[in-house]
């Protein structure tokens, strides 16, 4: 049987092997992820450690690590190296001298001060300094040292991902920092989440909601869910169809700058939006974009169209792509990278989406689609993974770093979006583009957080419309 290198093993020093004056060291650098992980493990969410805004007003002027994080390093040395496996803690004393900040490198030094032969106890001096040699903590530890030699394979720990959903949510809201709230008509907000969403968005300074629906039902939901409607305008109409019709009329007249779907079916609201005489059509094809902020991807992904156009034609896709490019530019992406998805990354005459992808790329070359960099067909893996793209020999400025994913049809797009939301913990937002006003179009199962995030995008779009500047 082959043996692994020594570094792959963990072994102790027995009581008899330890001499007074023997020492061991461990160095670690504190990261923001360490602070979050320690907070999750311990439940210690002291704002000094996890709230940057609060921390800036504290005596330290920045987020600091938990003091006990340093003491955990002492435990690490005792349990894994000196004395190592088989060690039993008896007592620990500590004195903390100064805070630990992100980027500080702590060096723990444990030195044997005393051995007690009758009970195999060892007393350790514990010293901790930072990268500048300044004392961070000190104390003593008393342990029962092992008497039997132990040598075991070093266990490889699993990788850990900290979900920063709240941080990603706040980052999205930051896109509209300093913007005035926009008036938005909410069609039939007659359940908990569809009512809580616009009210939460109002409290975040994103929108001024106008609730359109049966007033008695709206107030009943608000009372049951303890949602304050103080100062909120309600337009009383008898049912969901009337709510959709009235909300669209408010947008058409300019009384509101955006629409938001409540607890009614999508086709009820969109039927009024696309009505030729009374709707909100423009020369551009109406399409939908899901914004997915996925923790495993470096920037938000725009997925289109996964909610409006069931089987878009080539001409439809030109509009769908142009709509998405303009939204990406509004979000601060100077030249969005557009991946046109299919099942494969080569043109195949038997797969229509690959032929259309190639045609769309050539149309972009000829200036028929502007403002972005297009490539396709691309399979999903090589659209979002540089490794996958390189493995398949794809050289492209889009592959592996797409900003926009253009799906072949609604079915595939909806599956991609929902898989990212429910299996990858993506923060989602959804908005309809190509109409006279932005339309927040979310699923009836979406949370208030998703609805609020979608309102932020609608607010961003409305403010760009106010400026009247052409983006591409």
Characterise the protein shown here.
The chain is of the alpha/beta class. The protein is elongated and about 95 Å long. It contains 15 helices and 18 strands. Mean pLDDT is 90; it is low at 1-6. Among the domains are: 11-151, Thiol Ester Dehydrase, Chain A; 286-434, 3-Layer(aba) Sandwich (Isopropylmalate Dehydrogenase), CATH 3.40.718. The strands form 3 sheets. It has an 11-stranded mixed sheet with strand order 10-9-8-11-18-17-12-13-16-14-15, sandwiched between helices. A 5-stranded antiparallel sheet has the order 2-4-5-6-3, with helices on one face. Strands 1-7 form a two-stranded antiparallel sheet. It starts with 8 loop residues before the first strand and ends in a 5-residue tail after the last helix. The protein has helices at residues 32-42, 47-50, 52-56, 67-80, 165-174, 192-203, 215-224, 240-252, 266-273, 314-330, 352-365, 380-384, 386-391, 410-423, 448-467, and strands at 9-11, 23-29, 88-96, 105-116, 121-129, 135-144, 151-153, 182-187, 207-213, 233-236, 258-261, 287-293, 301-304, 337-341, 373-378, 404-406, 427-433, 439-440. It is 35% helix and 23% strand.
């Amino acid at each position: 049987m082959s043996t692994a290198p020594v570094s792959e093993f963990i072994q102790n020093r027995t009581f008899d092997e330890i001499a007074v004056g023997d020492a061991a060291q461990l160095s670690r650098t504190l990261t923001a992820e360490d602070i979050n992980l320690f907070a999750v493990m311990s439940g210690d969410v002291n704002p000094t450690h996890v709230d940057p805004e609060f921390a800036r007003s504290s005596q330290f002027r920045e987020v600091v690590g938990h003091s006990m994080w340093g003491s955990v390093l002492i435990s690490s040395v005792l349990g894994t190296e000196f004395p190592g496996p088989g060690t039993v803690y008896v007592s620990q004393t500590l004195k903390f001298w100064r805070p630990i900040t992100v980027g500080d490198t702590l060096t723990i030094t444990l030195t044997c001060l005393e051995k007690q032969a009758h009970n195999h106890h060892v007393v350790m001096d514990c010293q901790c300094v930072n990268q500048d040699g300044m004392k961070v903590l000190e104390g003593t530890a008393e342990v029962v040292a092992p008497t039997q030699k132990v040598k075991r394979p070093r266990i490889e720990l699993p990788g850990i991902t900290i979900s920063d959903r709240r941080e990603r949510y706040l980052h999205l809201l930051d896109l509209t920092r300093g913007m005035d709230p926009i008036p938005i008509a909410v069609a039939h907000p007659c359940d908990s989440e569809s009512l809580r969403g616009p009210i939460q968005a109002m409290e975040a300074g994103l929108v001024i909601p106008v609730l359109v629906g049966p007033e008695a039902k709206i107030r009943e939901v608000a009372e049951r869910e303890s949602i304050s409607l103080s100062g909120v305008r309600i337009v009383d109409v008898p049912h969901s169809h009337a709510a959709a019709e009235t909300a669209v009329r408010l947008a058409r007249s300019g009384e509101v700058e955006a629409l938001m779907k409540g607890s009614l079916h999508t086709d009820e609201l969109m039927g009024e939006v696309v009505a030729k005489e009374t709707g909100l059509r423009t020369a551009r094809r109406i399409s939908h974009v899901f914004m997915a902020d996925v923790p495993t991807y470096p920037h938000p992904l725009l997925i289109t169209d996964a909610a409006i156009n069931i089987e878009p034609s080539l001409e439809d896709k030109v509009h769908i792509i142009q709509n998405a490019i303009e939204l990406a530019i509004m979000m601060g992406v100077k030249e969005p990278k557009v991946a046109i998805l299919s099942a494969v990354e080569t043109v195949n005459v038997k797969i229509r989406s690959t032929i259309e992808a190639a045609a769309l790329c050539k149309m972009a070359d000829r200036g028929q689609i502007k403002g972005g960099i297009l490539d396709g067909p691309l399979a999903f893996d090589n659209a979002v993974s540089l490794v996958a793209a390189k493995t398949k020999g794809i050289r492209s400025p889009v592959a592996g770093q797409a900003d926009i994913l253009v799906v072949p049809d609604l079915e595939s797009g909806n599956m991609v979006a929902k898989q990212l939301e429910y299996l990858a913990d993506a923060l989602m937002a959804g908005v309809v583009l190509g109409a006279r006003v932005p339309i927040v179009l979310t699923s009836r199962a979406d949370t208030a957080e998703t609805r609020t995030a979608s309102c932020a995008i609608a607010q961003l779009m409305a403010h760009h419309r106010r400026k009247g500047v052409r983006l591409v």
